[in-house]
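step=encode ok
step=design start
structure_in=
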């Protein structure tokens, strides 16, 4: 049985709200920093303070890790509700999910891009966000 060799990142850099990685087979891969809030908000000096091992890249001072494997995910850029919730961290995705009977684990997978909601489910989630907005607009405590 032939063993598959893992891809390794040999060099990283940051540009345009993305983290780029050069692989050991000379490919350039990237991911959106929306997936990594601490790295997105880090200073250039903090971003340069990392260590690599066989599995990935670690920023111990930021408590952030990026696996080499994640550079090969299908969607390096968030889309749909993933993009919405990552771009609006002030909106509690878990609470929106609870209102719809969607588990915290499932909502987390939707946001991280490791699972994709159906078009119908995505519309249901975004409609619930709109419902919360309407409820807030109609709140009498602001009068």
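sequence_out=
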């Amino acid at each position: 049985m032939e063993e598959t060799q893992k891809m390794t990142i040999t060099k990283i850099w940051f540009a345009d709200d993305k983290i780029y990685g050069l692989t050991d087979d000379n490919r350039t891969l990237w991911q959106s920093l929306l997936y990594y809030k601490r790295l997105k908000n880090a200073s250039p000096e903090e971003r340069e303070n990392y260590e690599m091992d066989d599995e990935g890249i670690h920023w111990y001072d930021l408590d952030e890790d990026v696996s080499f494997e994640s550079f090969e995910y299908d969607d390096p850029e968030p889309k749909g509700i993933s993009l919405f919730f990552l771009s609006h961290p002030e909106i509690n995705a878990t609470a929106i999910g609870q209102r719809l009977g969607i588990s915290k684990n499932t909502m987390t997978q939707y946001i991280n891009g490791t699972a994709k909601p159906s078009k119908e489910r995505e519309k249901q989630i975004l409609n619930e966000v709109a419902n919360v907005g309407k409820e807030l607009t109609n709140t009498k405590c602001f009068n």
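step=design ok
step=annotate ok -> Residues 82 and 115 are 10 Å apart (CA to CA).
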